[in-house]
Design brief:
heterodimer; A: mainly beta; six-stranded mixed sheet; five-stranded antiparallel sheet; 11 strands; about 0% helix; B: about 120 residues; mainly beta; four-stranded antiparallel sheet; about 45% strand
């Protein structure tokens, strides 16, 4: 189907690692993205990974891609209260206008 | 910081009214998009544009219409608002092309409530 799937909610303790998971549907997708949405704000691109990569690390963020299972994850090390937001996974599908397909978002709550 | 703006941020309006949601970007991007987002649901593409005088329907059927007379401006109009139109509407823009640099920049969204 068309859906990019994510769990809707994740709660972690401050200082722990957070892992947000996503499954996508189109094996020909070229780029996969993680966007962050803070309350009352638009979506901001956090990081992306090209489909021929397995892993990408950017400071506290690690993206893992399992292309065989069409599974993407975002790990946030040393999670802080400022990381509380909704995180959207998106895939860029080939063809047409290279549209972005988004998941429903995972709400990350960080507690002391 | 992205230079894409949506107005109004919040709108509560009665059934049957005509409304226009504004979206402007100052980055000179060719591509612009409108997404609809219901709480806890995916963002669904409802309209997109490749450039001036180009508009296309997205994946999710919508009773709204759009226009692209200027590169920087991509307004969305509902001729007769209904409660089923209550949602958050997000506008985005990106450069032409399909590579990694075609990051989509998003506005802050308009939360529309039709009563």
């Amino acid at each position: 189907g068309e859906d990019v799937e994510q769990s809707l909610f994740l709660s972690v303790r401050e200082g722990d690692s957070s892992v947000i998971n996503c499954t996508y549907t189109d094996s020909s997708s070229t780029y996969l993205y993680w966007y962050k949405q803070e309350p009352g704000a638009g979506l901001q691109l956090l990081t992306y990974i090209f489909s021929n990569m397995d892993m990408k690390q950017d400071q506290r963020l690690t993206v893992l891609l399992n292309k065989k299972d069409k599974h993407l994850s975002l790990r946030i090390a040393d999670t802080q209260t400022g990381d509380s937001a909704i995180y959207f996974c998106a895939e860029r599908r080939q063809g047409g206008y290279n549209k972005l397909i988004f998941g429903a978002g995972t709400r990350l709550a960080v507690h002391p | 910081e992205a230079d894409i703006y949506q107005t109004p941020r919040y709108l509560v309006i009665g059934t049957g009214k005509k409304i226009t949601l504004e979206c402007s970007q100052t980055m000179g991007h060719d591509k612009m998009y409108w997404y609809q987002q219901d709480p806890g649901m995916e963002l669904h593409l409802i309209h997109y544009s490749y450039g001036v005088n180009s508009t296309e329907k997205g994946d999710l059927s919508s009773e709204s219409t759009v226009s692209r007379i200027r590169t920087e401006h991509f307004p969305l109009t509902l001729e007769s608002a209904r409660p089923s139109h209550t949602s958050q509407y997000l506008c985005a823009s990106s450069e032409r092309g399909g590579g990694k640099d075609t990051e989509a920049f998003f506005g802050q969204g308009t939360r529309l409530t039709v009563v």
